[in-house]
């Protein structure tokens, strides 16, 4: 039986020893031997895994493209690569594209057709022999940014991933708000126009229909944008940056939808901070400038107007950081560890229009 087999899920592991009694090292509680957790981030284009210590430092990490079939075998190979020769992890945190069902630990990522109701939590537990905690990939992004990134110190945070789709996650009072089945924070499918366009989800007027990378490019192409080369959101951002009127209008339209969603969410849960990541966030000023102006127009109440919007500082590593934080929350002591800047800012810049949510 391993330490992990006996690990409670909610209570701190360490039992306090009297301060004045010397404790031989071999009888120290299991907690003191724990040095790292295994973080896993699963999306439609890549799977990533890392060993992460209690301060947030990446000890080892690896990334592979997501295969079209047999994702679990690829994941097993990735995990084996990361934990080989490293300190043994004592828990696993995993972020996966949704929807998911935390009551069963199953996932059904929209962009991974081979996984429908896939029992990811149980498969990872079987693979590693460790306790596993699961959340959505954008929920992990939010938690990672709160722990080590642009959301540090926030008491009410929304993390938004603007990419192929739009995902989100809430961190309220330092704790992730996952929802009963794990789908809280699906802000991409909040309706900002009840009379608007039909969304792929079946709803109407969803933010994603206006602001995701493919939808930004689609609207621009329908309205006279005719680039010579690539026709994606990255090319659209480049054209917006040099003042192409349709490209500028596409980002202003997308930013306005995001502003509506942000103001509504701020009114619902009294946000103080919004962190925006994902490939489209790399567009920079052509997104954040119009977003700031739209929020100024859309938001009314003082507490809604007070919300701060910031770009990601962890980039593509935010999901891994959040998955690690989940694992530490599962298995570590109650008090959050101090943030370690070692992980912050090291990720490569996000790529516009590439990859799934997260
Ligand atoms: Zn929708």
Question: Can you describe what's shown?
Answer:
With 358 residues, the protein is an alpha/beta fold. Helices cover 32% and strands 17% of the residues. It is built from ten helices and twelve strands. A hairpin with a 3-residue loop joins strand 8 and strand 9 (166-172). Zinc ion is lined by residues 189, 199, 201, 203, 206, 208.
Main features:
single chain; 358 residues; alpha/beta; 5-stranded mixed beta sheet; 32% helix; 17% strand; disordered C terminus; binds zinc ion
Question: Briefly, what is this?
Answer:
The protein is of the alpha/beta class and 358 residues long.
Q: Largest sheet, described in full?
A: 5 strands, mixed
Q: Report strand order across the widest sheet.
A: 3-2-1-4-7
What's the shape? globular
Question: How many extended strands?
Answer: 12
Mean pLDDT: 86
**Structural Rg:** 21 Å
Distance N terminus to C terminus? 35 Å
Count of runs of 4 or more consecutive helical residues: 10
Strand content: 15-25%
How does the helix and strand content classify structurally?
A: alpha/beta
The residue fraction in helices comes out at: 25-40%
Poorly predicted tracts of residues:
1-32, 334-358
Task: Please write the string of helix (H) and strand (E) elements.
Answer: EEEHEEEHEHEEEHHHHEHHEH
Hetero groups: zinc ion
């Amino acid at each position: 039986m391993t330490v992990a087999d006996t690990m409670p899920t909610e209570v701190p592991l360490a039992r306090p020893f009297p301060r004045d009694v010397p404790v031989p090292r071999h009888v120290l509680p299991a907690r003191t031997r724990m040095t790292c957790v295994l973080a896993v981030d699963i999306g439609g284009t890549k799977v990533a895994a890392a060993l992460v210590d209690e301060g947030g430092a990446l000890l080892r990490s690896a990334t592979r493209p997501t295969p079209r079939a047999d994702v679990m075998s690829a994941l097993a190979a990735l995990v084996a690569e990361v934990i080989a020769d490293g300190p043994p992890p004592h828990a696993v945190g995993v972020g996966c594209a949704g929807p998911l069902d935390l009551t069963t630990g199953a996932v059904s990522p929209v962009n991974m057709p081979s996984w429908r109701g896939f029992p990811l939590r149980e498969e990872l537990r079987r693979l590693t022999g460790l306790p596993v905690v699961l959340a959505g990939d954008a929920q992990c992004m939010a938690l990672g940014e709160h722990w080590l990134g642009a959301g540090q110190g926030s008491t009410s945070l929304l993390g938004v991933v603007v990419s192929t789709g739009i995902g989100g996650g809430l961190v309220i009072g330092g704790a992730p708000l996952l929802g009963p089945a794990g789908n809280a924070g699906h802000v991409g499918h909040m309706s900002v126009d009840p009379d608007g366009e039909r969304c792929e989800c079946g709803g109407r007027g969803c933010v994603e229909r206006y602001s995701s990378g493919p939808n930004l490019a689609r609207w621009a192409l329908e309205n006279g944008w005719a680039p010579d080369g690539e026709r994606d959101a990255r090319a659209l951002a480049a054209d917006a940056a040099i003042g192409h009127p349709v490209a500028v209008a596409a980002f202003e339209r997308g930013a306005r939808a995001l502003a509506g969603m942000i103001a509504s969410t701020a009114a619902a849960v009294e946000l103080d901070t919004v962190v925006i990541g994902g490939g489209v966030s790399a567009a920079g000023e052509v997104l954040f400038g119009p977003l700031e102006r739209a929020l100024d127009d859309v938001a009314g109440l003082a507490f809604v107007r007070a919300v701060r919007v910031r770009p990601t500082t962890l980039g593509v590593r935010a999901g891994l950081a959040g998955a690690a934080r989940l694992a530490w929350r599962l298995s570590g002591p109650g008090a959050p560890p101090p943030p370690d800047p070692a992980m912050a800012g090291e990720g490569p810049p996000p790529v516009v229009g590439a990859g799934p949510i997260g």
